[in-house]
Automatic annotation (TrEMBL):
Pfam hit, one: SBP_bac_8
Signal peptide (from-to): 1-23
Keyword set, alphabetical order: Signal, Sugar transport, Transport
Family: Belongs to the bacterial solute-binding protein 1 family.
Main location, first listed in the record: other
Gene3D superfamilies per the UniProt record, alphabetical: Periplasmic binding protein-like II (3.40.190.10)
Protein name as annotated: Probable sugar-binding periplasmic protein
Subcellular location: Cell envelope
Organism: Kibdelosporangium persicum
InterPro entries: Bact_solute-bd_prot1 (IPR050490), SBP (IPR006059)
Function: Part of a binding-protein-dependent transport system for a sugar.
């Protein structure tokens, strides 16, 4: 199913250390080579791997095929349900797709570092392509240490969802703007059964769960994964301590055992039984793509969207939030990289293609022209995410040579912290620092 579950660690990506080294270049991966653009009448098939499925697969396929407006004889073989693990295996086996699409930015640093994805800068320079039409934060998460080895296939912005009917019943005038508001509103919105169990949770603090991921919460507190030396320094960070102390206040309000029992009865994140769809939670973090799932699976829910609440110490960042997104790239070893680049350029820089795809799967358009296009379909809830995207306050996750290992380490700690198996916050974060820094040192 769709996206947002950035918590999955695809360990097989690390195997590329052995199979890919140095910068990959042209068709066979020779450094410095780039492929010529195909002739207008070129008759060829481009295989594309992605993890899209069902409704989104159909929308993406339809947009991929619009390349035929420029190259009428190019055919698209779009293979969905292909995760990063399968993509990695295809590169290792020397049989990669012509174009790779990944839901996750988390492994990009690894792919760039090991040459699994080719450097796109020579193509950009040759075609005099202006990538500055894409916001800086988005350009940042699609590159690694100055090397552009991917482009953004739309973006994801994380904000806040709230149930308007529940807010009205509780006498709440609008969405929370601070993390203190989240705690206050949760107390007013939560309903307990006569036996003390949770019937409706104002806000669910469990992490990782649904959109509750450390990387999604971090911008609200100004918490950073890496310090100026490029190392993990969570234990000495007031921001990370504040984040986890906030989390604990909510856990203590509900009670650990009650919270776990309640969470165990909630539906899958991307199914019609999602807890927000079913009115089991009143507020949540999530991406703009949730608007499409609500329209499709729970159209009767009366909900609003807002920027993510900020901690009082980080109030000036209200209106901003985490940006991440799907990435698209040329794998090492493709036979016709010039044609691959033409498809990537079309999907990521052609305004009509971007708008068509954004309208289809409700992800964020990524260029200045596509954001302001009159053909972009925007309702009240989706508008919130466009405003966040244009706020100048976007925060991207850092790309590292260890993929998403640093993200997983923090989310694993958060799970233990909520469960009460980690009770010393500073000592626990120091262990996370050591784990991440050891992994970084090995690279």
């Amino acid at each position: 199913m769709r996206k947002a579950s950035m918590r999955v660690l695809l360990v097989s990506v690390a195997l590329l250390v052995a199979s890919c080294s140095g910068a990959a270049g042209g068709g066979g991966g020779t450094s410095g080579d780039i492929g010529a653009a195909p002739a207008k009448d070129a008759d060829l098939t481009l295989t594309v791997y992605s993890k899209f499925a069902d409704r989104e697969y159909r929308e993406v396929t339809a947009t991929l095929e619009t390349i035929r407006k420029k190259f009428p004889n190019i055919k698209i073989n779009h293979q969905g349900n292909q995760d990063d693990d399968k993509l990695t295996q295809s590169i290792q086996a020397g049989n990669p797709p012509d174009v790779a699409i990944s839901f996750y930015t988390d492994n990009l640093g690894n792919w760039c570092h090991n040459g699994a994805f080719q450097d796109l800068q020579p193509y950009i320079d040759r075609d005099r392509t202006d990538v500055n039409v894409i916001p800086q934060a988005v350009r940042d998460y699609t590159s690694y240490q100055g090397k552009r080895c991917a482009m953004p296939l739309l973006a994801d912005i994380f904000g806040f969802y709230y149930n308007k009917d529940m807010f009205a019943a509780a006498g709440l005038p609008g969405p929370p703007k601070t993390t203190d508001d989240i705690i206050e509103y949760s107390r007013k919105l939560t309903r307990f059964a006569p036996d003390g169990s949770i019937e409706v949770a104002g806000f669910l603090p469990s992490m990782p769960f649904y959109g509750n991921l450390a990387e999604v919460w971090a911008p609200s507190f100004g918490a950073k994964y890496l310090n100026a030396e490029g190392k993990s320094g969570l234990a000495g960070s007031k921001q990370w301590q504040e984040l986890f102390e906030f989390q604990k206040k909510l856990v203590d309000f509900y009670g650990k055992e009650k919270l776990e029992r309640f969470k165990a009865g909630l539906g899958d994140e991307y199914s019609p039984d999602n807890a927000f769809h079913k009115g089991k939670i009143a507020m949540m973090f999530d991406g703009e793509f949730r608007t499409a799932f609500l329209a499709d699976q729970a159209p009767s829910v009366n909900y609003g969207t807002a920027p993510a609440p900020m901690s009082p110490s980080n109030a000036s960042m209200y209106g901003g939030g985490l940006v991440t997104g799907t990435i698209i790239a040329i794998p090492k070893g493709v036979k016709n990289p010039g044609a691959s680049w033409e498809l990537i350029k079309h999907m990521t820089l052609d305004t009509d293609a971007i708008v068509q795809l954004s309208n289809g799967i409700k992800n964020m358009p990524t260029t200045a022209d596509s954001i302001t296009s009159p053909n972009l379909q925007v309702n009240e809830q989706f508008r919130t995410f466009l405003d966040i995207y244009s706020s100048g306050k976007l925060v991207a996750k850092p790309s590292t040579a260890i993929g998403d290992a640093h993200l997983k380490a923090v989310n694993d700690f958060a799970e233990k912290w909520i469960a009460g198996t980690e009770t010393d916050l500073r000592a626990g974060l120091k262990k996370v620092d050591d784990q991440i820094n050891d992994a970084l040192a090995q690279k």
